[in-house]
Write a structure and sequence with these properties.
The chain is of the alpha+beta class. It has seven helices and 15 strands. The protein has a four-stranded antiparallel sheet, covered by helices on one side.
């Protein structure tokens, strides 16, 4: 694939119209083109008198040597995962949030059938429980906005932004698209899925894992890990007040936040743990109209999405403040310290 960079768009055009402009500008013959897709889309609003979109388009042509001025796309290599031995017992994953789901997905893609334990409900049952809480105030302490299949991000608009640079970021996006997310998340500078889409995608991922031999146990809480001769032998669970030990030699803890009981149990067993910095957040609200005017100005005629922004401050003491997970349209901002 070859990449056409820095395509500046100052009109409201369709994707095909943008492609036509890019091909014409670089004198690429249509009969040479085998395939194309948008690889990047962002907004340049640094100058309020010239707010515009910036695109990149990847094309596949019959003879790349004819277009040597174009950048050749470097394929992102995803580190491989190899299973080198047969496991005596099925591995157990604690938690069906994003970490647990993608751990299970990776295992079944390598012919390993995990058991996933989740103290909360499946995502659609959880949605009903959350809606009931919003109406009545009746809280299910094990399945709510914070806990349950999909994790705490399920009801927070499905933001897919990160500050890390890893080849696995692309892998995650491609998996989401495979299971039903819009293809735009592969090239938008600030992609998000949306809660309604995310609920269906999570269910699709679960059904795929089950089709490959994985097992989900909802409303099932891990209360202890059994260890013998310095090796894991099983996981003690409770569901509907009934305790059961599931034999296993491999456990993945994808327990997310607020897992105090689990950490206390690990501490009592003398299992080594390392502390991690903790962020405390507050909610700040702005008028969307004010943000749009501040970021985009008042001149542009482009159809632009609701504006957002990002700020960070690092003090000499090592502490920092930064904005996180802005939700345009909802007029709210997470501000962490």
């Amino acid at each position: 694939m070859l990449r056409i960079n820095n395509i500046f768009i100052r009109k409201n055009l369709s994707d095909s119209e943008i492609f036509e402009l890019a091909v014409k500008k670089h004198s690429i013959k249509k009969e040479d083109i085998l395939d194309w897709h948008i690889s990047h889309k962002s907004i340049d609003a640094r100058r309020k008198n010239d707010v515009h979109y910036v695109y990149s388009i990847d094309i596949q042509v019959k003879n790349e040597t004819k277009y040597r001025k174009l950048e050749k796309v470097k394929k992102v290599e995803i580190p491989s995962c190899k299973i080198t031995k047969t496991l005596p017992n099925r591995p157990i994953i604690i938690g069906a949030g994003p970490a647990g789901l993608f751990a299970a997905l990776t295992l079944v893609q390598h012919n390993v059938q995990p058991i996933i334990l989740e103290q909360g409900q499946s995502v659609k049952e959880r949605k009903i429980t959350v809606e009931n809480f919003l109406k009545t105030g009746k809280l299910n302490s094990l399945s709510n906005v914070q806990f349950g299949e999909g994790g705490s991000g399920t009801f927070s608009d499905g933001k897919l932004t990160t500050g890390i640079s890893s080849p696995f970021c692309r892998k995650v996006l491609e998996e989401f698209v495979y299971f039903g997310a819009p293809k735009q998340i592969l090239y938008l500078s600030k992609p998000h899925i949306g809660t309604d889409n995310l609920i269906n995608i999570i269910e699709n991922i679960r059904n795929y894992i089950i089709s490959k031999g994985g097992t989900f146990l909802f409303n099932t809480k891990m209360i202890d890990i059994e260890i013998s001769n310095n090796a894991i032998t099983g996981v003690l669970t409770v569901s509907n007040d009934l305790e059961e030990t599931i034999p296993t030699n491999n456990v993945i803890l994808a327990i997310g936040h607020s897992s105090r009981e689990t950490f206390e149990m690990l501490y009592r067993k003398g299992i080594f743990m390392e502390p991690k910095n903790f962020s405390v957040g507050v909610r700040i609200e702005h008028l969307q109209e004010w943000l749009n005017k501040t970021q985009y100005g008042t001149i542009t005629k482009l159809k632009l999405p609701p504006a957002d922004y990002k700020l960070a401050y690092h003090s000499e003491s090592g502490r920092s403040c930064y904005t996180f997970c802005m939700c345009p349209r909802w007029n709210c901002y997470g501000f962490f310290k």
